[in-house]
Amino acid sequence: MNFRIALKAYLYLIGLTVISAFLGGMELSVTDNIKNVFLAGILMISTFKGLQIIDVFMELKHAPKFWRNLLLSYVILIPTIIALIYLIF
Q: What does the pLDDT read at residue 7?
């Protein structure tokens, strides 16, 4: 793996983590309608982080499509299921 690519991905992940922590902290002091927006933002950020991990750190960008799609579907399905559970209850 190229060191520059890994470093950029690492810094990108740190930035996204800081942003999601900020959104999580802001969620405590807002109304219910805006909480849903913050939750959607946090779940989207976690999806982007998962995509970055799969492509860069697991090096599945050039892997067989079956394996890459299998892991990508996991990264997309889990936040979607969490959002649906949160909206239902």
A: 93
